[in-house]
Amino acid sequence: MNLKQLGIFLLVSIAIVLFSKHIGLFWDNVLNGSKIGTYLYNNGILNWSTIPLAIDNGHPPFLGTLLATGWTIFGRSLETSHWMMFPFILGFLYQLYNFISFFIKKKRYKILAFILVFCDPTLLSQFVLINPEIIQSFFFFLTLNSILKNNTYLKIIGLSFLGIVMFRGMMLCAGLFVVDLLIFTVIKRQKLINFISKKVILTYLISALPALIYITWRLSIKGWLISHPLEIWGNATEFSSFNDFLSNFGRNVLVLGFQFSDFGRIILLLFIIFTLYTKRKSIKLKNYSYLLIISIFSTFFIYGFSLMIRNTMGHRYYLVSYLSLSLLAFMLVREYKAKKTIFSIMLTVLLLGNFVVYSDSFAQGWDASLAHLPYWNLRKKAISYMDENKIKINETASFFPNATSIDNIELNNDKRSFEGFSGKEMYVFYSNVYNLTDDNLEILHKNYSIIKSFEKNNVRIELMIRVNKTAHNNGYK
Questions:
Q1: Domain range enclosing 415
Q2: Global pTM?
Q3: pLDDT digits over 313-338, tens only?
């Protein structure tokens, strides 16, 4: 890659940060970034052992530590937090281009392939959010590129950092080991015994040390890893019977298939399946075997674990597989004469995927596309409306991830906090981005009326009041 290309990625990274600097902490990152980061900022950046049980999720506090470090140097703010993502966005773009360059040599096709992969809705959403996914993806593709190019030193660096971002990073490390093994044995047709060499064993042992040290430290200090003692987030492995497990497993399979095909990816997935089947006699499968292996096995342990637990994992957990499948779809386009038309359709469908908004009763991956963008300005307008009409935030109920202090989302030192919803509160701050249960939706429908609604591009925020308190509604603007 030359300086011109690096300069372009630098400008794109800066543009992403400038565009997203008003976007607050969202979903799990309120905990991973804001709450844990704020504690470390106030009590010592590396003071991991005293993180309170109420906000301790067991994962390595990589994101929280990163943010606390940035706040200590540059000041605690939302903008600083987004700039802390900048080096990882830039590094990811660089590694993604290198990944594409391994398979595609012509510059024009490299650019087109990069555009298609870049426009995956889940990737675009991760770019604008403060989150660990871009960090993990950077280290993932750094490692994957080192595997493809036989660079042992970069492989060690990539795996070492990937394993301490989150537990999912450790699962990605395991997936990369399988990818490395299959490339060696299936694609390069080498004997398994030759893969299990002193060099390979040392490489993976050294790379595993940071994760092993963290796990050992964690168990010795806290005594647990994943299953929270207070079960704040429920018990992911609790089933009433074997039939209950099988029923949940079947549901998880359907959810997993939906996640891979959501936000327009269904067109790319069907195109890949259709092409590999109908042209199975004419295409050289070896040309696509790398990407098939990477797409399927890089997140193998993540979706394997996800199928076994009560609640499935989010769309973003399979991001690296989505991107590999997008590149595979692009490469398969060359099997057809109508290349421009097929490419244009795939790109258009992916971009339109950012406008997909499901009904309120359907749990949507709101952090997995750009559909959430209108929410942030609507939220500010709704809070301003509450202030103007003297509706107290501390007496207003809301839902995850908004049932917390304003500061935890906006990092603006506004300590006023929304209450968790119980159905007894006079006021409710509701948005369709909160993915409510059917029971809570029914309570809102029966017991509350709308004072004020804010809406844009099918994203809504509604301020509600209990129906038996509607006399108070008369004074609202």
A1: 366-475
A2: 0.95
A3: 899 999 999 999 999 999 999 999 99
